[in-house]
């Protein structure tokens, strides 16, 4: 098993390096095609008063007067050495910006994943078990509607209900504007709405998937057999049917990282959550290439890692794959 | 996101979704007819009527500067549908060409194209879209390019797999034995068979393209702010939300939500009727 796993991981990694290389090259080419002048961008209003001499000096410092291939190689070399460059909009090293914000994104997204998994499993199983009941209609109907609703719109409705009308929870931010320190209790209160919205927006496919998969499994012989042996209904559904119904879901979960990133970008922006996902929007609004490129690369890495995790989990979970190899 | 989750409302699947069709037709009529016949100016600013809640004169209320939200939402939907349509056409065209090339050529070119598809797929769509629009000045073209470049892969996959099954069919063998060149086979034998699949892919792409455009506009990175697009309207409405003006962002959102729901219901119906195998392939 470890050998199969190792082989697969090695194969994946071998594919990752050229992939990341292509992504960096693509980003670089796009950035060079951009009509924006980074030096002007950096100077902002000062561009009008700065002498051309100084602008040329900055240009030379950033290596913008070098040939394109050389610029790309320098940038790539710096990336490989861990130097992600300087964020032009935040006027700080990119690594520092990411280091400061990554934790908040991981915290919010991680909590959202846990909530989403737990809620979807329970609701999806309930819908499948009580198929065509009012509970099933409600659950699958909501999941369907949720699929069609843009997450930022859902987020705004949630803010309006819980923050504006009911005044139960704050509408956004990490802490209260008045407080100077980061208190865990305060963060927790600010976290509830974004985490709930992110979890809800990501859950619909999983609810529908668990439902459909369990419905199919509940028809299978071994479930009928378990029922015939007089096992309790709960044991049949949870221990027998659900377990085998969930197998394909492991791979699907890992493949959902791109959607999670998309959700995080929108939710973090609506709730002013100071994570890396909302930073990408700020970087984009300021045409801050170094920061945006680093964040895009980070997201690509997350997607690749998600795929690898999915495959690994599948190998561990399914004895057929383990014995016969990945087809 | 929008369409194509496997499964769903099993029972209602076989019936024709009449409600969805009616909603879609009504919205389309509004989009086409209102700008033609209504003598109303959607950009009309009336500061005396700013931020009014929904009433009989303004069924959806008015926004911060007193513009009628219903009228603007209709115009916004029009802009979003046009941009969505353009983006869907461009992305499906790119996808079809890539899929055809990969499927018809096979070998190294096929592998290369599919690796490119994998590469594009491993950058999250919205982030990649943001990256593209960020580097260009906000314009309709930038949004269309951004949506097209992030969404062509699905069409490419579908077309390639269809071509691979077509290649094995006897009439293709017959054409080859008859002396047809590759280009002729592609044009005369592959394309006509692919048209229905391409059309369906394009129709299903529209809600995605609209969603993408709206998300970009909502973030302030999409269409120019003066254009009444649905995303811009929700973004504008969000600013006055904390003051309690829920209508300025809720109703434009409904105009994204309802057509998306309707299209996905119709697509599901169509797909189940025509080809059940598609459900798993078109996980858009």
UniProtKB/TrEMBL annotation, chain A:
Gene3D superfamilies: MetI-like. It is a multi-pass membrane protein. InterPro entries: BPD_transp_1_N, MetI-like, MetI-like_sf. One of its GO terms (cellular component) is plasma membrane. Residues 102-310 form the ABC transmembrane type-1 domain. One of its GO terms (biological process) is transmembrane transport. Keywords: Cell membrane, Membrane, Transmembrane, Transmembrane helix, Transport. It is found in: Cell membrane. The chain crosses the membrane at residues 102-129, 150-168, 188-210, 249-271, 291-310. Belongs to the binding-protein-dependent transport system permease family. This is ABC transporter permease.
